[in-house]
Amino acid sequence: MKPKFFIVTFLLALACQPIWAKIELPNIFSDNMVIQRNDKVLLWGWADTGEEVTVLTSWDNKEYKVKTTINAKWNLEINTPEAGGPYEINFKGNDTEIVLKNIMIGEVWLASGQSNMQWSATTDKGIDNAEEEIKNANYPNIRFFTIARRTSDYPQDNIPGTWEVCAPETMKDFSAVAYFFARRLQGELNVPIGLIDNAWGGTPAEVWTPKSVFDENEDLKTSAESVEETQWSPVSPSHLYNGMVHAITPFKIAGTIWYQGESNRGRSDVYGKLFSEMVGSWRDAWDSEFPFYYVQIAPFNYKEPEQGVLIRDAQRRVLKTIPNSGMVVVSDIATIDNIHPTNKQDVGLRLANLALKETYNSFEGEVYGPLFKEVHPQGKKIEVIFDHSAGLMSKGKKVTHFEVAGADGTYHPAKAIIKNDKVILSSKEVKEPLNVRFAWDNIAEPNLFNAAGLPASSFKSE
């Protein structure tokens, strides 16, 4: 071969190699960001192979040095102090210097799911009292990061977006549930709150789940392959995990809030396992058993019988299998003719109270509605026992939406009496009731609550 050929081949090979002429940071690092307090957090980025990067943190005036690897990447673990700010972080390489300003140290939460999490004060019909809520949204210690909607066949190392300070002009287009969650946390804890929003309306849980889950679970893989295409969201397994989650998994978070499930109707038989595996895979990716708090979907007039309530029941049941998790029930704020209830305030408040009690130990009130525990058949009657049932009551003259079944498995409406925070059921059509179901309908809006004013979840005792 001629020498010229070798020269051309060498230049082409060189052109194909990643060459970083300057320090670059992932977009999750920007002015106005919030970093998790009292923790070991990772800083990372890209630079020339072998280049030394110097990092200076203003909260302790410490200087760190790290060298870029052969893959043109560098990372550095640092300790963060108690909440506070604003601070700066200085990144300096051979020819580049980046200074991030107005950084706060506090609590960082990820908000994910489908449209009810994505819903903002200005989306479609908006939220309750939207104009007033927007006008009063001046909370400089709450910060927003919205991940732009992206799909990918493969896990990505970066995502588009930038941190913004909470103000009327930024709050109005951000997740309303996440905003109300943060407002409650910030008011109670008095620390900066960072919110990362990566919700996408209409998405099934399969798209948020990494490929490894489907590789290891043939039943979930088969179910995922059956998801029908839609015109408003991607349905390919793992595509949003790849495009919107993977890149931020090195970024330390306090926990996740989740509002999703509507788009998994018709696959309720595997939803509990899928959801549990998804949560576990996220925790593995973050290398953290962070709390995961989620919303049980609200009643809605779906065309398919029972598909909505079957998902609600799957969400109730899986609560026992996912450690460090919590679920809020929102049947009392449902609008059965609108799949997007406009009362996002109470949803955010209930999620925040869960976090305040179970993560931060700073709330003493009840945070759960009554949750089915067990039934005790008693001849012509059957007794239903709930957890979180103190002050069990009905908001109405009679307790509604209970049904009982005998050995034949046929359910009939039941008369319900509350006694000593238990429910006693009977029915003329069932001589010896053995099982109970409650609010077992897509549009059921039951009236059973506890003293905290929180609604009971639908359930089936079988």
Automatic annotation (TrEMBL):
Signal peptide as annotated in the record: 1-21
Keyword Hydrolase annotated: yes
Domain Sialate O-acetylesterase: 107-354
PROSITE patterns assigned to the protein according to its UniProt record, in alphabetical order: PROKAR_LIPOPROTEIN
Source organism per UniProt: Zobellia barbeyronii
InterPro entries: SASA, SGNH_hydro_sf, SIAE
Name under which the protein is recorded: Sialate O-acetylesterase
Keywords, comma-separated and alphabetical: Hydrolase, Signal
A Pfam family per the record: SASA
